[in-house]
Each structure stands twice: as C-alpha cells, then as structure tokens.
Amino acid sequence: MADKAKIAVLGASGYTGAELVRLLLRHPRAEIVLLTADRRAGQEMRAVFPQFAPFNLPKLVTIESIDWKSAGIDLAFCALPHGTTQTVIKDLMAKAPKTKVVDLSADFRLHDNAAYARWYGHDHQAPELQKEAVYGLAEIYKSEIEKARLVANPGCYTTCAQLPLTPLLKAKAIEPGEIVIDAKSGMTGAGRAAKESMLFSEVSEGFHAYGVGHHRHMAELDQEFSLAAGKDVVVSFTPHLVPMNRGILSTIYVRGIDGKSPEDLHALLLKFYEKAEFVHVLPFGETPQTRHVRGSNMTFIGVAKDRQPGRAIIVSALDNLTKGASGQAIQNMNLMLSYPEATGIDQVALFP
Amino acid sequence: MADKAKIAVLGASGYTGAELVRLLLRHPRAEIVLLTADRRAGQEMRAVFPQFAPFNLPKLVTIESIDWKSAGIDLAFCALPHGTTQTVIKDLMAKAPKTKVVDLSADFRLHDNAAYARWYGHDHQAPELQKEAVYGLAEIYKSEIEKARLVANPGCYTTCAQLPLTPLLKAKAIEPGEIVIDAKSGMTGAGRAAKESMLFSEVSEGFHAYGVGHHRHMAELDQEFSLAAGKDVVVSFTPHLVPMNRGILSTIYVRGIDGKSPEDLHALLLKFYEKAEFVHVLPFGETPQTRHVRGSNMTFIGVAKDRQPGRAIIVSALDNLTKGASGQAIQNMNLMLSYPEATGIDQVALFP
Amino acid sequence: MADKAKIAVLGASGYTGAELVRLLLRHPRAEIVLLTADRRAGQEMRAVFPQFAPFNLPKLVTIESIDWKSAGIDLAFCALPHGTTQTVIKDLMAKAPKTKVVDLSADFRLHDNAAYARWYGHDHQAPELQKEAVYGLAEIYKSEIEKARLVANPGCYTTCAQLPLTPLLKAKAIEPGEIVIDAKSGMTGAGRAAKESMLFSEVSEGFHAYGVGHHRHMAELDQEFSLAAGKDVVVSFTPHLVPMNRGILSTIYVRGIDGKSPEDLHALLLKFYEKAEFVHVLPFGETPQTRHVRGSNMTFIGVAKDRQPGRAIIVSALDNLTKGASGQAIQNMNLMLSYPEATGIDQVALFP
Amino acid sequence: MADKAKIAVLGASGYTGAELVRLLLRHPRAEIVLLTADRRAGQEMRAVFPQFAPFNLPKLVTIESIDWKSAGIDLAFCALPHGTTQTVIKDLMAKAPKTKVVDLSADFRLHDNAAYARWYGHDHQAPELQKEAVYGLAEIYKSEIEKARLVANPGCYTTCAQLPLTPLLKAKAIEPGEIVIDAKSGMTGAGRAAKESMLFSEVSEGFHAYGVGHHRHMAELDQEFSLAAGKDVVVSFTPHLVPMNRGILSTIYVRGIDGKSPEDLHALLLKFYEKAEFVHVLPFGETPQTRHVRGSNMTFIGVAKDRQPGRAIIVSALDNLTKGASGQAIQNMNLMLSYPEATGIDQVALFP
Predict the structure, then answer these.
(1) Could you give the residue ranges of the DSSP H alpha helices within D49-192?
(2) Which end of chain C, N or C, is more open, meaning fewer C-beta atoms within 10 Å of its C-beta?
C-alpha cells in the first residue's frame, strides 16, 4: 500500500457519509478515490453538501457502476441503509478480497443468525460474513479489529452506553439486572431522509421519547452486555430526541454489587481508560455535556452518587456522527491499516 | 367581591410573572391592578416585556411602596425569588388578612420545619404561615385549596412527576423503592437571571444533566410521595436541560407490585383523571411530546410496557411556565375564588 | 345564521390548518363542523396534531366525499396547496352559493389574469371568481371584505411588507423606485411537506437567503404596491430562512420624498394605525422582535433614522401563522360574518 | 525562533479565546505557553471550557502577573474587551519589543485619531501604536501584514462585508452611495458576558435587528470603503441576531456603474479571489448558507441578479468566530511569522 490508502465511501450523500468525507479530507494517510450515492449519481459532492465546494472530490457514482476488481480500493466505508448493505458488501468482498470494509450500518453487528432474524424479521443474506465480521468497539476489541477484514461499526446509542457499562459488567461491579439507560440524541442520528417527523418545525422547541420499550438498538446492547457479564442481560433503554444536531447523552442508573460504591465504579473506569485516546473520565461527581465533545471523537464519562445508598448515576456523552459513527469508523480503519489509532481524528471539539 | 377580582403580581419582571400577566389579561374574572418589580420600578411593563406594549397595565412599583391595608387586593400572586418571599408574604398577610395569596416560590411547599431547615440551611421566617399553607396541586388537594388563604404552588419538575406517580403510590400499585425519574426541562425553568450558564451559546445545540444526586426539588418529592405511599419514599431523580424554552418531560421507570401490569397502571391513571380538566392520559403505549402542551395548562401522560416483565415506563409532559407554574397558580386562584376551575386557562396548545 | 357559524377547514393537516383549529376552538361564535385532509382521511385530528387530543373534533374526510349542497357550511377556510385550490373553490361555490370562503392559498390574490398566467405558467381555472375575489388585507380593504363572498387571504411575507409600506406609498411619502425589503421568516412559512431542505439538521444552526431575485411573492407585492402608489412599483425583495418556527421580520430601506423625514414617516404610520386592533407602531427609533408577537394576531412596526440623510429603516414583525395566515383569515371571517373584528383572535403573544 | 512559536492568548475565557485555543492546539508551528483570564486566574482552562479537559494547557493567570520581558513570547493574541486592550498592548510592546501582537478588539482598527475619538468618546491611549498598527484583512493587506509588529484583526461583520465589496469599490464597479448591507449574526458574536438580552430564552425562537442606524462597526466600514473607493463612502448597515451560535450572512444590495451587470460583478470577484485560500466565489446565481462554513476559515460569496435592471444582490457568509475572528487572527499570525498562510486553519466546515 502506498503512503495514502485509497478509500471509497459508499453512501456519501447521508450525514455519516459527509462526516467521513470531512474527516478523510484532512487525514494524512487517506485519499478519497470513490464516492457513491445512487440517487445523486452524476452530481458533484458540492451539490449534495455545499461545504465541500472548495475541495477536489470525485463525482458521485452508483454502486453498480463500480468494477470492484479493478478499483484498487484499500478500504471501503459502507454508509448505506440497513438491509441493502449486506448484499453490497457480499458482492464487493467476493470480487475484491483485498479490500477491507468498515460497515456503518447495523447489518453485521449481531453475531447470532437467530437473533438477527428475530430482530429484523428476515434471514441474513451473508451469513459467512456475519460470522467473520468483528464488532468495532475499539476500546474493547482492539486486537481483533487490527486483524479484521470486515468491521461492523457500533451504533451511536450503543457506543455511548457500552463505553461506561462494559468495563463495569466485565468487572462484575454492577447488578446486570437493574440497569436503566435513559438516552438522548441529537437529530443527525435519525439520518437525512425526508420525513415529516424530522422537519424543523416538528423537532425544534420540544422534546420526546420514541420507540419506548422496543427500540432496535437493544439487540446490540443485549449481545454486548451479555458477553461482558457472562450471562443474559436485559436493560431498560429509552431513546429521546433533543432539538440539536449532534450529540448523545446517556443517563445511566446502576447499583453496585459486593459493596462497590459509586467511587469504586469511578475508580474502575478511570483505570480502564487510563490510556484510551478517546475516552475521558471526569473527576468524581462531575458530569459531561454533549456540546463539549461536538465534532470530536471524544467520549466524556462522569460518575456521581445517587441518593439511594449503593446506587450510582453515570452520564456519558459523545458526538453521534463522530465517535458514534464516522470518527469511530476511521478509528477502526486506522487499526485495520496499522496507522496510529488517532491519525486524522484528533480534532478538538467545536464549542461554542 | 366585584365581578372581577383585583389581582396583584409580585415579581412581574420574571418569566412566571410574564406568564401570569399573559393569562390574566384574558381572564374574564380578573383585573390586574398592581405589578411589582423592584429593580424595574417606575418603568412600564412594555419596557420589560415588549409583547405587552399594546395593553394597558399598571406601572411597575417596588413592593415596599405598597400600602397593603388600603390596596384592596383580592388575591396576590407571589413570583419572587426563594427566601425573600416568606418575609414579604408574612408582612402582606399581617396587614391585609383578607388578601389571598398564591406563592410560586418554594418557600411554603414543605410542611415540616425541620425538613425546610435541612434543605435550605436556615429556619423558616414565617413558621405559622408555613403550617397554614396548602400545597397547591389541584388534582390532589382541591378541597383544601378551595378553603385556603395561602397556597404554595408546586414546582414544575415535581408537578410533572406527581401527576403520574401520586395516584399510583396512593393505590399501592408500584414499588416505592424502585422509582427512577429522568426529567428534562426547557430553559425558562431556570428563570431570567443573567448567568453565563444560561446564555444562548452555552445552552443551544447541546444537552446535559445538572444537580446530579442532590437537586432541591427532591425535598418536595420526598414529602409528597411519602404522604401518598404512607411511608418514606426516596426516588432517583435527575434533571436535565433541553435547548428549548418551554416544557418538561419526565421519563419514569417503575415496577408494578402485586402483579400490577403496565396496562393496570394505565387503567388506574385513566380512571383517576377521568374528570380532570388538565390531565389527559394517552392510549396505552403512546407517549407525549412537550410541544403538544406548549402554552396550555394541560399535562399529557403516557404509559408503556418496559422490556423487563412487570416494569413500566411512564412519560409525562407539561409546559413548565403554564401547568408547571403560572397556569397552575391561576387554577388555584380559580378554586380559591370559587370560579370554575378552567376559567381563563383553557388555551389550546401552540404547535408548531 | 345561528349563534355559532358552521365552519369548515379544508386542508386541516398542514400548519395553517392547525392554526385555524387552535383559534377556532376558542372562538365564541364559530363551530368546527368539517375538517378535510385527503391523505389522512378517516383519521382523528389527534393522529395528525396530538395537541388536539383533549378536544372533540370531527374526523378528517376527503374533499370529494363532501356534499356541499347539504353541508350547511356558513364559511369555509381553504388551506390547500396552490393550484388545486381554484378548482375546489369553484366547485364549492357553484354548489353552495351561500357558503362564504376565505382562501389562504395564492390562487385568488392576483386580480389580473395575465399577471397570474405570467407568474404561475398557466391560465387561471376560475377567472370569474378571480375577478370577484377581494384581497383580504383588512387594514386596507375592510369595507370590501365585509361584503365579500370570497376573500383571498394575503401571503405572510406580503402582509408584513404591506402593513408598513402601503400607507406610505398611498401618501406619496416615499420614493417607490428605491425600496429594499430584506425579509426573514421562520420555518412554518414553508409548510409541512417532507422535504430534505426542511429537515431540522438542514435548517437549525444556520441562516440563508433563498429565491434570490425571483420569489413568487413579488407578484402580490407588485400588484398591491402599484395600486397604492398609482404607478408601477418594482421592489428589491429577498427572503431568508431563520432557524425558528414562527415569525417574519422585514427590514425595509426607504427614502422619503418631498422632504419627508423618518420622523414624518413614523408620524404618518402612527396616525394611519391609530385605531387598528392588530397593528402597533412602536415609539420612534424602537424596532420590534418576532418573539413578542408569537401566537398573536399583532403586527409591530418600528421606524428609525438611517445614517444617510433622508433615508429611513422600517422594521415590521408578525407571526406568519397568525397575522400572516390563519389569524388574518379569521379576522376576515369576522368581518364577513359581521362579528367584531377581534373576536376570538385577541390572544396575547406567547413569550418566552 | 524555534520550530514552534511560543504563543500567548490574553483573554482566554471568552469565545474568541476558546476558538484560538481550539485552533492553536492543532497548529503544527505553535505552542500555547501562556493563557490569561483575570477573573478566572488560578483555574485550569477545563473549568472555563470543559472541552479542553483532555489537553495539557497552562493554568489561567492574570495579565498583571506576567513579566513580559522574560516571558519569551513570540506572538500574543489579545482577545480582551475594548478599551483596556490599548493600555495592555502598549505596556506589553514597550517591555517586549520583539513580541508580535494580533489584537482582536476594535482598539487599533481605526487609523484616524479623530475618528476614533468621535466613535468611542475618548482619546486613544496609544496613538503611536494606533499609527503603526496594520489592518489585518489578509486578502487586501497581505504584504503589510507580513511586515507588521501589531495587527488589528478586523471585526466579524466588517470582514463579511469587505470581502465582497472592497474589490468592487476598488474597481469602481458599483455605486458607492447606494450600498445597503443587511447583516445577520449568530450569538457568539455578542461574546460571553452574562446579560439578560443574551439568555437562551431571550434569543431562541425569534429574530430582531439591533443598533439600527448607529452601530459602531460602521466606523470601520466607513474607513475601509472610503479607502477602497477613493472617496467618502457611507453605507446603510443593519445588524440582526439569528438564534444560532456561529455565522454571519450579509445580504448586500448594490447598483453597478458604467453598465456593469451583476454577471460582471461576479466575474470581477471570481478573478480577484482566484488564488485566495479562504474566499470561495459560488457560481453565478447561487448564494451561500452560514452552516456550510461553520468552524472553517472559509468565506463563501454569491452574486445574483436583482429584479431591478442594473442592480445585484450579493450574499456573503463566514463563521464569525473563525474567519470573523480567531481563524483570521491565526491567518495573520501565519503571515507575520512567515508560515504558509493556511497552516493550522484548513479545517473542513462542520455540517451538519
């Protein structure tokens, strides 16, 4: 591979696609050579996202117009809608076995075929790849990602919940049966599809929960938390929409076990993330704000005492488009291509 | 009393003061005869709130310039900061014993002197009035309010949490020791004081929790929930700030007892609020949005199944300035003056 | 006609439809008996606008299901998309000649067939009605509206520009050839159609102009300003989108003629609107904010000196859904049904 | 000078200070060695701006605690309030003559003592430095800036207006007496001082003009436009506040002279900015949005035809904290220290 890896972004007309392009344009070891957007094929990227007008970027093409064999892509990011993704990646990896893939959809996040079928209502179209895919939470699966050919980039809600909870569950420090995750997301998490419920006037100046009791992200949480705890874990999880663009904040209610105090949980997280480039644990009692990680790949985690003895309130915050999607995808790319982990994703948060 | 009660608003330069004026200007049985704002005394209301420019309103005066004996006020709303309130009301009620008072501050909400001193760090300055004051949650204490001379208007967060939970605790339908209230408020709940943390650029485009583990509203919740349950109740409660002006949404996690299902809890609330003018219980499984109660005195409550058997997620929404403050204050005034409960506060929500 | 007029709202699933319902629900002389929404027919209004859940309203039906002859409608508001409107109204008025109509679309605003065809690219489908229709700017055409059967409710941008400029042009106080109108609107002015460009994340946290040099609203301005000035007037007009829901603010740059100073222009407007219920002229030098008229039918107008001798800056503000659409429509209804002009639309602005 | 210049930021607790730190933290040739904030002295930067928690930064100190002689600062950014700035810089430059200064306040922008006294109501405290200071609009005064010791960084409104207008005035392509600049700014332009008028609830969900007819930025515009045109120019300029954090958009109405068409003006700007790193001229007829330059040092300019023959509408957009303040300040630093002009300020805009 040359000094700069040749990169494709499939699905460049959505928000995670734009965020990939924003970051890759300034990545010293990456060169964007291919951008797809089926409905906008033939157009310049600037017609879809005017902020890219000053930059030279390849024109948008359809996926089916690509000859994967000769394309010479080192790594492809796949930011396509759920469902179509698995057939696109199956085809790509069959024709270009040396091209690595980071998939930002949910298609390859569940390891278990049966669980996939149960949550999504149909069989997986690429079961072998499903088996091969590595779950791309770099703070937990770093060594697996380094060797992977296909990485399933975690969801934004689930990244925000796993980063504080997985180390605590692994350490058997909290009661797995009493976890309540109250999550709040900015609007970019819902994508760029033109839906009435996502219009400015339907979203601004108000707040609401959605998918109460049955959100799909729970499948991913069930899998990862059960793995971490070594037994079946089912959490209470409620997502909400905040009238803001970027950011997820999770307020998490837990009970320490075996006498573990909130201070103990804090110490445990502090130690676990001692050397992490993208997780910052705040001093005990402080809690984070989403605005202070905006546009950065950073996750902030705070731990405070609840009023009820033995219980703690943990608050985590990240930017759903960066650490929650495209930044994390590039973090995975860096590991897969043996670059230093923070290459090109060390932006300082944009506040105000 | 004449056809229109003579009304004073103490503290008219804050947001709850403005909301009182907005509603009273169109109340068919009320006439605003006195407006105070110490720092803005001598000014017209339009200088403080330009939306009132087209209306005839009395000039702002200081509280100390008022001769309560001769003022002939039927009812005074007190929208003053915590602390000074109790001495102002003590003085007012001593000099004008026929003037009724609805207090929007926290000063008279706690019945217990010791609890007051513990939460606020000093003894109450008007302990007799503290004893006399009626807690003004009209849906629960209607008959007491009708006879009251001094009503302590509930807090906005606590109204939003009590309306769904108090009936369930009274009915012993939920486990009092396992209640988690994750509450989110618009910015007007924080008042109009010029603080850096409340500037547009500190608040918009982001989300955060505050007062984690030790918010003062908990004193009021402890009192009322313990009364309802007939034993000490301590809940987990976390307030958050939403970049919006009006609205509180509470996401509440509860466990039914004695086999009470989420559907049972829903049925119980539906029955309890059958005739309530200002509480609307949504069909089972639906949850509310704050924008749909904006500017109205209405509370919307939804109940849904949690994934964990036996657990329910309850979501309640109200406008913190209306049902959470000034609308509820006028609801109390209506009861105290023997007007129909909804007089002047039947506005339809403003959406979008 | 009975004590309450029987009212139909055609197109009740859009924002101006919802605003009509909000206002009509509290109008003492109006009863909503018919609501249409073709794509939502069969549904309850609460499914489309949850804020109406507590109210009894007729179910949504299709327009074609209505038997106009027997419907007994006193007045129909037509809040349908441009184009289809003219055939719907033609049919309605043919079948139910006693039903009066207030049309909120642009279909009947232009008096001139040729101008209509030039701006809209096709001939008008109801040219006789186009001739009969009265332009519904109540502050200018009150007596015509009182006698009208069909009123064309003005556009929101044009109302905001005409209220300050028409009296000045009629008085020949400003130079008609040097008017610059820089207009800014909240998002509800763009309606409720699901378009990518209207998504929260495309609109919030940014600002832009649109339709620069060729916006359709100019046809209406040309007509009315030319009528007022007694000669052809062509103004510079640029609309912009503000990340807010409600409100239009127009910043207007004019030059006084015949020695008319900014103070003279102010005095002229003050006198013209002396008895107007819904136009408030601020003291000289003060300029308005949209938030102070939100949810009300009020227009605020301010006049200030420009730095260049002889030039003035005029700023006008209104709520595009109320005075800019549905409130003005009800104002027209009141005049058409011989009710006092402000009946049911005297709400105080909702701020904050 | 070493590989990295030693940089001081005076006034690091305001928004332009934070933006300087954000950019300097990733500038390959700069090292932050000194941060001041008088009222926050002794605190860590993370207490003032939590987004910097993960970074090593010097503690905040007072200005008076600094020994300028021994501090060894290569370049100081001065982001202090107007007025105090001139005495601080006078003292600094007397004690450390080798330290270069980029001043972000208005103190050194006016060349003329009399004009300064007229606009600010007092004599300048450092008249010699006022004479020496170079006006830091890099696109116009590049060679002067390269040699300067003290650069007066332009204002945000004025940068946004000068970039499109100065080349046109220099080329005598537009009528200097008929320029109308209607400018709209995000809230960070107003700084971080705790004022009632800047609270979230006073600013969100509304729009207004301010300082109509007499804004201080006009002094700077008068000076620069008169220089460009070679004669006295007085423009109409009205600033407005948009409920957003970052961004300025100027809608500018001009008349071409000597038969210059809007297309000619566009061609002229395209040519003038052919090699500019931070000005991008859009295709004729397209106009920019502030969100597409957010967080970047880029200015977008669009030119469109007005309806009135011979008149054009020009729209320019930039981020007031980046190109309008701190990004431009670093652009000036780069020139003063002989670095490539775009070093460290080539961030891609953050949208959405």
Answers:
(1) 68-71, 84-95, 113-120, 127-132, 138-146, 156-170
(2) N
